Amino acid sequence: MARTAYGYITPENLALFTDLYELTMMQGYYNQSHNPTATFDLFFRDLPPNRGYMVAAGLEQAIHYIETLSFGERAIDYLTEHGFDEEFLSHLATLEFTGDVRAFPEGTPVFANEPLLEVTAPILQGQLLETVVINQIGYQSLIATKAVRMRDMVRRHGDGQSLVDFGSRRAHGSDAGVKAARAAYIGGFDGTSNVASGELFDIPIYGTMAHSWIQSFETERAAFETFVDEYGDESILLIDTYDTVAGAKIAREVAAEKDVDLSGVRLDSGDLTALSKEVHEILEETDIFISSGVDEFKIREFLTNGGIGAGFGPGTALVTSTDAPKVEGVYKLVAVERDGAMQPSMKLSTGKVTYPGAKSVRRVERDDEYHHDILALQSEDCNGAEQLVSVVEDGTLVYEFPDLQSIQEHAMRTLSKVPPTVRKLEDPDSYDVRISPDLDTQTSVLRRQLERQLT
Amino acid sequence: MARTAYGYITPENLALFTDLYELTMMQGYYNQSHNPTATFDLFFRDLPPNRGYMVAAGLEQAIHYIETLSFGERAIDYLTEHGFDEEFLSHLATLEFTGDVRAFPEGTPVFANEPLLEVTAPILQGQLLETVVINQIGYQSLIATKAVRMRDMVRRHGDGQSLVDFGSRRAHGSDAGVKAARAAYIGGFDGTSNVASGELFDIPIYGTMAHSWIQSFETERAAFETFVDEYGDESILLIDTYDTVAGAKIAREVAAEKDVDLSGVRLDSGDLTALSKEVHEILEETDIFISSGVDEFKIREFLTNGGIGAGFGPGTALVTSTDAPKVEGVYKLVAVERDGAMQPSMKLSTGKVTYPGAKSVRRVERDDEYHHDILALQSEDCNGAEQLVSVVEDGTLVYEFPDLQSIQEHAMRTLSKVPPTVRKLEDPDSYDVRISPDLDTQTSVLRRQLERQLT
C-alpha cells in the first residue's frame, strides 16, 4: 500500500496544508517584489446560532505551526511538479516566520469582530498562515464553547458531575478527535476517552466497557463477573445491554458476591432520567454515569428533572458541535505598509465588511461581571483591560503557554463573568461590543475614500 | 516547545487513537483468556435528516489502519504509565490483524442497517478497531454524500459546472481538511484547493486569489494588472472586493490592455445569481466562478434562476456537512464463537436493536434502477447482486483498491441508479431495505431467547 494511504498530516507535509491560492499569491508577491508588511486579523464575523460568546482555543497549535513552519523536500518536490518557479521555491525552502503575533489567551470568552489572533509580518509570510490558523483556532474554539455550555449547565443545575469526552469515533477525522478532547478539557471537562489525546496533551483518560464485552459472554452475569475479577473496585459496568433495571440488579448481586464496591454503572439508552432513579434505588451507593446523546440541553433536562448521575459522557454532540457545527472564522488583511507606513485596509464586499487597522480589545467589568468590550485602534487610549497579549515578536516566541489545567481554570473564572443572559443556551442576549471613536472614524473615512475611488 | 504542541496523529501514535475502554476490554479478554472469534458490523442505524442514501467512503484509510496497526515504544510507554499489565502490553506490542474484512466498495450508495464494513477476528483484535474505523468511514461517507448531493444538482440543473472543495480552513481539524477533499472527489468534485490533499491523494488542485491580494495594492486595477503580469491567461480574478460590477469592468479593461484571455473571475459575496448575470454581460467570454456559502440548495437556486457560472467552490457547508453534521456510525458485535461455532448476537437496548449474524447485502435492480435491497444472512440464498466484497482474508489484503478516479466513476454510475425520489434534497423517500426471511427469523428467535433469560 502506498505511504500515503492513510493520509496523515505530519510535520513533513503540514506546510502543504494550505489553499493553493495562498502559494499562488505568495509566488506573485515574490516575483513582483511586492512584499509589504501586512496585518491580518482572525475573527468571527458572526457567532453561531444560539451562541452569545465563544471561548478562544487552539492558540498553542496555531503558534506551534507558525514557529515550526517549513517546506521540506517532499513539499518542494510536489510544488515543482505543479509548476511553481524554482527561484520562488528556493525562497520557500528557507522561509521562516519573522513577524509579530498578538492573541486572546486560550480559555477567554470572545465576541463577534474581536481578533482572536493578529499577525503582522511581510505579506508573503502572513498570507500563508491563513488556512491552518483558521482551521485550528476555529475548530477548537467551537468545541471549547460547546464544552463550556455543558459545564455551565452542570454548575447551575448539578453538583459537580464529571464530564468526559466520549466523541472520538464521531469526530470529523482523527485530528478533530484529539483537538476536541483538548478543547473540551479547556471548556471544563474532566478528561477524555481518547488515549492519543491523553498522551499528546496530558489529559486524564477514562473508560468503562462496551456492549460487545457483555455480548461476548453467555450471560450478562458472566460478563460482569469476569470484568470484576479483572478490575475489582475500579469496575464500571454497562448495564443496559438487555434491560437496564435487570442489569442493575445483576450488578448488585455480582458486587456482593465478589465483595467489591463498584466504581459505577453506565446507562447508554432509554429514558435516562427515569432509569437513573430506578437504578439508584437498586444501587444506592454506586455512581451512575450517563452516555448516549448527551449535550447541554439533555444535561439541563436530566438535572432539572431530578436525574441521578455522577457524570456524563457527551460524544457526537460535543465533538461535532451538532447544533452549531461551524463558526466562520476569517483572516482578513486590515492594514498594509504603503510609502513606509502602515495604512488601514478594508474591503467593501456586500455583508462582509471588516474593521480596518491593528486593534486593541478592551474589556470593562462592573461588579465582577463583563459589562462591555471596546474594539479600538491599537494606538488608541481607552478604558478597560487589554485582552490581546503579545505572543511572538520578530519571529521569537515571547509568551509562555499555560498548561491545560491553568487554561481550564482561566476559562471557568472568565465564564463566571459573562452575564447570565449572554450565557443562555437559547436566544442569548448580544454582548455589548462597542466600536471606539477612533476606529469608527477610521472605518468611515476609509469607506468613503474607497467608495469615491469607485465613482 | 514540546514535541507534541501541534498534536499530530501519525503512524507513531495512531494505535492510541482509540477509546480507553477498548484497551481495558482487550486486557480483560487477554488476562481472562477469553478471546473468541467475533464478527462486528459497522453500519448507520439511521441516516441523517434529509438523506435517503449515504455514499460509502473511507474504506482505504480504514483498511490501511487495520493492516499497519502497531503499538510502538511510545504507545507502550504511555500505557505502562497508565497501569496496563506488562504481559498484556508485550502481547499488544506484537499484535497484528489476522482476521477477515468484507465491505462495501467506496463510492457505493448504502442505506440504514447495511454493514459498510464487517470484521471477523479474535475479539481482542476486532474490538480495537472500533474507534478509528467509525471515525474514518463515518466522516468520509458523510462528506462524499454531501458532495454527491451537490454534483446531483449540477447534473440535473446545470451543464457540467465544475465543483472544487474550498473548505479546508473550516474543516474540523487538519485530518478533516484532507479527508473531505478525498471524499468530495469521490462524490463527483473536480478537485480541491487543499495542496496537502493533492499531494496525499493525487487530487487536482485549484486556486484563484484572495481579497488580501487586492487590498495589498493601492488600487484594484494595480492588483489585477500585477496578477495578470504574473499569471497571464491562467489568471482568475476576484472581483468583489469593492464592487462586483465595477470590478468586472476593470477586469475587462486590464485583460484588454494586457491582451490576455482571463481564465475566469470569481464572485464571493452579494446576490450571486443576479451578479453573475451582470458580470456575464460585461465579460461574455470569461468563466465565472461562484464561492461564498455554496451548498446543494444554493446550487439548485442559482441554476434554476438562470445564474451564469462555470463552477462552484463549496467550502464550509461541504466539509462540515452543515445541514447534517453527524452520522452515527456504530460498530456492533453481531456474532461470537461459542462452543466452537459462530453464534448470532444482539443487544436489546431501547431503540438500539441490531440485526444479529454475519450478513449479506443484496441489491435488486429493475430497469437500471435500484429497486430494493435485501439484508440477509451471509449463508442465505437470495436474489440480487451481493454488495459486500472481500477485502482482507486471514489478515492478508486480497482487494485491489481502485484509484480515486475509478471510485468517482463508480459513484456517478451508481448514483444514477438511486431512485430520484430517494435522491431528493428534502424529505426523500426511504429506500426499500428488506429483511430476509432467515435474518428475520434469526432476529426474532434470538430476541425471544434473550427476553426469556431476563424473566
UniProtKB/TrEMBL annotation, chains A, B:
Its keywords, alphabetically, are:
Glycosyltransferase, Ligase, Phosphoprotein, Pyridine nucleotide biosynthesis, Transferase
EC number(s) given by UniProt: 6.3.4.21
**Can you give the residue ranges of the Nicotinate phosphoribosyltransferase N-terminal domain?**
16-137
| Reactions listed under catalytic activity | 5-phospho-alpha-D-ribose 1-diphosphate + nicotinate + ATP + H2O = nicotinate beta-D-ribonucleotide + ADP + phosphate + diphosphate
Q: Recorded GO terms, molecular function?
A: glycosyltransferase activity; nicotinate phosphoribosyltransferase activity
Q: Which GO terms describe its biological process?
A: NAD+ biosynthetic process via the salvage pathway
Report the CDD domains cross-referenced here.
NAPRTase_A
Which GO CC terms are listed, alphabetically?
cytosol
Does rRNA processing count among this protein's keywords? no
This protein's source sits in the domain of life called Archaea
Which residues does the UniProt record annotate as the domain Nicotinate phosphoribosyltransferase C-terminal?
Answer: 388-440
The pathway this protein participates in, as annotated, is: Cofactor biosynthesis; NAD(+) biosynthesis; nicotinate D-ribonucleotide from nicotinate: step 1/1
Q: Which residues form the Nicotinate/nicotinamide phosphoribosyltransferase domain?
A: 163-341
Q: Pfam families, alphabetically? A: NAPRTase (PF04095), NAPRTase_C (PF17956), NAPRTase_N (PF17767)
The cross-references to NCBIfam families, in alphabetical order and at most eight, read: NAPRTase_put, PRK09243.1-3, PRK12484.1
Question: Can you tell me which family this protein belongs to?
Answer: Belongs to the NAPRTase family.
The protein depicted here goes by the name nicotinate phosphoribosyltransferase
Source species of the chain: Halogranum amylolyticum
